[in-house]
Design brief:
heterotetramer, A: alpha+beta, Butyryl-CoA Dehydrogenase, subunit A, domain 3, 4-stranded mixed β-sheet, 9 strands, 13% strand, globular, B: Butyryl-CoA Dehydrogenase, subunit A, domain 3
Chain lengths: 402, 359, 402, 359
């Protein structure tokens, strides 16, 4: 895993780039200036430095990415608004890199990274949640195209996305994992209908996507026909790494909100709540130090399985902390700011009301792999415990009970 | 206290079936969702007419002399439980239990009689989370001045009962300023109430308020048992019919064990609430202990059941369209109502001589 | 379920009996006097009043039993030392009553009830704990006898028992539940060896029992050959009812010990421990009220499933309360009275040291059905959730992996 | 503090493998069981010779000038963790960590040198559960008088370090009266110690004691991580080979999920302890917070892992013959040692400005 690119090399390249492209002008200019700067950064291999040369990177070590990001940020350069294109960056890009043809990499990666094209993910279905491999959206071959029919759900950003990564069933007559293929769908194509999906917070962060005879050219297939499950593993692995993985200072995240609430209102303090707050503070700090250790393991090239612990405890903690905040606030916590149906593009756990936090956190143990599925994964892949008896892996998909 | 009857009588069973059947027809998950999504009415008036006038359940705690059924605590608990099971947006708890109890038997015949018939509703003007002595408003020359934040079901109440310096006053709803809040639990909306020299008449001594709060704690616990019970039943039913991995999801052992534990907790909550209700009905020898126990155990099981219900429904449980969130919000809000478990544990510690500090 | 015997009838019979048999003389006299009194009580149908006439009972309602017990206790009569013969009373007797022949009932029930003959239970094996039906002790037919070989474990009272109820495999070639039969074993027979089994408390409350060619006459079989599983259900059902089912006052049981420790040492109090103690106090009171309600349901002839909640929460609570007691005591809790290997005949949760309670309580979630098995039972029989896919119910016992 | 290294270096990995291999040969579950069942020796002297003299691990925290390795906290934590994994009945924690740290660098060369070589062992004469300032004994004319209850590993200590009025005194073990207790954890037996004008010499200021206790909290947490790790590994291995219902017991989902949760907790505890150790090694900027965090998280995971280990082993885990109980007892006793989680949470609250009372 040793890289030829050293940190000094990288810094030299960045300095040279910044000398030629004025970051301040790009940030202060219009959209076109911003975009030109980002495209140039991509072309110079300074976008995701661990990607191959020619695809926005330099084949450098993954641990050097923060060096580049920090240097550009320090120079006041415009960024690619990563919060908005998280699915593209975190899921589509690594999948295209590993499984895409060279044409696909050339076509998709640059506008993905610059944020010109937003991506979404069409995996989950109403009947296929934890059991993703059981999904039923059909893709039928028709000449050089595939014709799609089905319904996808829990799609964030679908209403603004240009492209989607999509998993569909190309063969219902074989066992479920074997009959899937992986595609890139044009979200502007006819037969693609996006409807907002309101969640219990009152907002519609997600969408449902109905596919009715939507066509995908075969050139937009990623990996071989029938290899969709394998390709999807790359996507999902990267999703789990990307959720809840950011570096935070002590009391960063939701625990800081609870601690601030505790400090600001001595009148609400009780011994029982104190115990709860302290237990959560300790757990939050433990989770933070665990994430810190995971990042050090990653940087050392020895990723290890501890990352799955981070996602699982992130969900549990967010739920417990937000519940405790409501308990602490008492009557005042029962007042929400609004029940209006907004369409937020990001989840803001520290800037909204306590009721929002409590409700939204319920999704943390469902989205991106339920906590139950994660526990299965830890038990089997990390601890090596035996799988349960399976009844669904040798039967043709069409014959499974559902 | 060990001779209190903790099991249901045939009459109580009949009442339960009757209320449940009515609610199954008139208060479905979909109807409550529509109510909540509308964000306009203070409560479901049509449903309340059925509960109060149609079935005559608003007067269960009103003395017989004033047209009520006379301290039918066991029956009231059955009704509260069934209304909780349906997250029914009606002011039974606030009007027929809390306000009625706060009026006491010495209140004017006229108001109690009209509450009993369901013709009018009343709300005790205290914060929903109140568990100890309320802040008192100022009463002068037959008028009340002051403000109370976060009062449950006050928006639609015809009469507000206001704890003031020298007693409990009745104020017409039309004489006060009420501001609706976007409440966590919109099936029992809160509002802020302002009294600016609002005309008021003294209706009861303040001593009735603690009694009303204690009754509220027990009855809200009954409601929570009903709520938890819906969550468990609904989750079990869903997990039987939902297939993933070629199996009903309810056949997965980790979920089964969590539901078994939840059932144990619910079974215990049912016994504790039965005890608190039986104690109330018998005159309340063990009143404060029983009410605090009920409120703690009821709150805990309701929140846990609703949270498990959302989680075990997976994505669908996180949507607005599925009623699970109505139960989650009611559970969390009632957990705060009339004293959180934490507050009641603190009270209990004093009552049962397990103080934190050396005495 | 209505009984012809009223409480008044019963009281009248007891008064008549006591007028004829002096309880004080029996209690104050020697063993022979005591025994004569108990035999007479049995013969008068005043032993277990819900048993049939002639077998120590009057066919009365189960709810009248406390009336009889209280009346005899109030009169100062000797009792049958129920703590010592719990297995006989709680498990063997109901099984013999339901499945025994009239000869067996005649032979066994009277000395069982009077305590002349102590019983033990030979069900569990080292390889068959939760999966009791998988047990391997073989019973081979030889003329009018059965010859037994195998090892049983977790047998309390085996070292003093005269008889055992025993489950053995009579046919290994059929699926496991179908190949079992149920016997009464003479513990004094040749080939029966009892060895003390030391547990983590340091004591040996239980035994291992080795069966090496031990013989049982076929007349000591209970139920048909191959019906052992069905017969055992009667035993186990009664075991679960009998564990943790007694009526206690508020703060009865282990919670009283914790509460007393809290009250007696203000110096050890902390806000965190206070929260723990109060939470446990509430849970203990909830469990107590649940048991009270279960008894009222039983008395009303509508038993319901709530009894299984009692056993499960009894185990959890005992473990949590005893752990909290050690936390509260701190250093002092680390001092045990002794590690000597005693052979106690009863579990004393309130009269020993805190370390004993903590350690012994660990057994509460294992003995008499693990908490895991109990949760399965509740999930499937009470909630009606589907069973897991089974791999062991259609295969011959001898072909199962183990 | 964010540049502390929380992952192990190759040298530390080598040390871990070396200690683990030695313990696999010389400290098995059976050998510890025999030790405990004997109820006679103060510690396993043969094993201690190997640890201290054979592998030279008793001097990791002794300054180099006095013949030690010089404040090798990271290495000491590796050793503590491996010894915890084996519930080894040796006085590493009490002598090589606590007593050594209490002596500080100013202590006489002679004693520190002999502790480093493993020739002698010492114990700090404070109750095992101590977490704040110790009670001070009376020192007069070069002699100490008083009593201390429940001192860990004092029975076999050659020297006792006694906090007295004006400093820390060294007293020869042979000059005091020691009474062995039937300790919950017999792998680290406690005894009561009486000093009756025992000849003593002043060896360090009292200021070293808080430092020793803080180091003890972190190192016992490392031990707890090792202990929990053994419990998890052993349980997983058993559940893979134990069949019930025709399946390996480890294929049952409810157990899998509990073990997954335990693994998450252990993973977190490992990170927290790594942080506390790295902080110690770096000079302790965040010392008290880090040590309290480690002690809380370590204690919780150790107790939970040991309890799950007993439970998931079923009957066999409840026997004296299976080593699981050794871990259960060590876990519960170390949870009390150097401050329970509850005490450390209280301290932490002050340190991180989350006080219970209004300031």
């Amino acid at each position: 895993m040793a890289s030829v690119m050293t940190e000094a090399d990288l810094r030299a390249r960045i300095s040279a780039f910044l000398a030629e492209h004025d970051p301040a002008a790009a940030a202060g200019g219009g959209d076109a200036d911003r975009l030109a700067f980002l495209r140039a950064r991509f072309d110079a291999g300074l976008a995701w430095v661990h990607f191959p040369t020619g695809l926005g990177g330099l084949g450098a070590g993954r641990s050097l990415q923060p060096v580049a990001d920090d240097a550009f940020a320090a120079a006041g350069a415009p960024d690619n608004r990563p919060g908005r294109i998280g699915i593209g960056l975190g899921m589509a890009a690594p999948t295209i890199l590993v499984h895409g043809s060279s044409e696909q990499r050339e076509r998709f990666l640059r506008p993905l990274w610059t944020g010109e094209e937003v991506w979404c993910q069409l995996f989950s279905e109403p009947g296929a949640g934890s059991d993703l491999a059981g999904l039923g959206t059909r893709a039928r071959r028709d000449g050089d195209d595939w014709v799609l029919d089905g319904q996808k759900v829990w799609t964030s950003m679908a209403h603004v996305a240009r492209w989607a990564i999509l998993l569909a069933r190309t063969d219902p007559d074989v066992p479920k994992h074997a009959g899937l293929s992986y595609f890139v769908l044009d979200m502007t194509a006819p037969g693609v209908e996006v409807r907002p999906l309101r969640q219990l917070t009152g907002e519609a962060e997600f969408n449902e996507v109905y596919l009715t005879g939507a066509r995908i050219p075969d050139t937009q297939r990623l990996g071989d026909v029938g290899d969709g499950w394998k390709v999807a593993q790359t996507t999902l692995m990267n999703e789990r790494v990307s959720i809840g993985g950011g570096a935070l200072p002590r009391e960063g995240g939701m625990i800081g909100v609870l601690a601030a609430a505790w400090r600001s209102d001595p009148g609400a303090r009780t011994p029982g709540m104190h115990d709860t707050v302290m237990r959560l503070w300790v757990r939050a700090e433990a989770a933070r130090l665990t994430a810190m250790r995971v990042r050090q393991q990653l940087a050392a090239g020895a990723p290890g399985p501890d990352g799955s612990a981070v996602k699982l405890s992130f969900a549990t903690l967010n739920q417990q902390i937000s519940a405790a905040e409501l308990d602490l606030l008492g009557d005042e916590g029962l007042r929400r700011d609004s029940w209006a149906m907004g369409r937020p593009e990001e989840v803001d756990f520290t800037g909204r009301d306590a009721g929002y936090r409590y409700l939204r956190a319920k999704g943390n143990s469902i989205e991106g792999g339920t906590s139950e599925v994660l526990r299965n994964i830890i038990a089997e892949r990390v601890l090596g415990l035996p799988a349960e008896p399976r009844v669904d892996t040798r039967v043709a998909w069409k014959d499974l009970p559902r | 206290m060990s001779d209190l009857v903790l099991v249901e009588s045939p009459d109580e069973q009949d009442l339960r079936s009757g209320v449940r059947a009515m609610l199954a027809a008139e208060c479905t998950g979909q109807s409550v969702l529509s109510f909540v999504s509308g964000f306009s009415d203070p409560f479901d008036e049509k449903l309340w007419r059925t509960v109060a006038r149609g079935m005559g359940l608003a007067g269960l705690l009103v003395p017989e002399a004033q047209g009520g059924a006379g301290a039918q605590y066991r029956a009231a608990a059955v009704v509260a439980e069934e209304l909780g099971r349906a997250v029914a947006p009606v002011p039974f708890l606030s009007s027929a239990v809390v306000a009625t109890t706060a009026l006491g038997s010495s209140a004017s015949h006229e108001l109690l009689g009209r509450l009993a018939s369901g013709e009018r509703t009343a709300a005790l003007a205290v914060p929903y989370g109140l568990w100890s002595a309320p802040a008192l408003l100022s009463a002068q020359d037959g008028a009340v001045t002051g403000a109370v934040r976060g009062v449950a079901d006050a928006l639609g109440a015809d009469v507000l009962l206001v704890p003031a310096d020298d007693g409990l006053y009745a104020v017409e709803g039309s004489a006060v300023r009420r501001t609706r809040i976007a409440s966590l639990d919109e099936t029992r909306p809160l509002c802020d109430v302002e009294f600016s020299a609002a005309p008021a008449r003294l209706v009861a001594p303040l001593a009735t308020v603690p009694c009303a709060l204690r009754t509220a704690a027990t009855m809200v616990a009954a409601e929570q048992v009903g709520l938890a019970s819906w969550c468990l039943d609904t989750t079990v039913a869903y997990l039987k019919e939902r297939y993933q991995f070629g199996r009903p999801v309810g056949s997965f052992q980790a979920l089964k064990h969590r539901l078994a534990d939840l059932w144990v907790e619910l079974t215990q909550a049912r016994a504790v609430v039965a005890y608190a209700v039986a104690d109330l009905a018998a005159g309340g020898d063990d009143g404060l202990v029983a009410a605090s126990l009920a409120k703690i155990v009821g709150s805990e099981v309701a929140v846990r059941a609703a949270e498990e219900c959302v989680q075990m429904h997976g994505g669908i449980g996180f949507t607005w369209e599925h009623p699970a969130h109505l139960y989650l919000k009611r559970a969390k809000a009632t957990s705060v109502a009339y004293g959180s478990p934490d507050r009641h544990r603190a009270r209990l510690a004093t009552l049962v001589d397990l103080p934190l500090e050396a005495s």
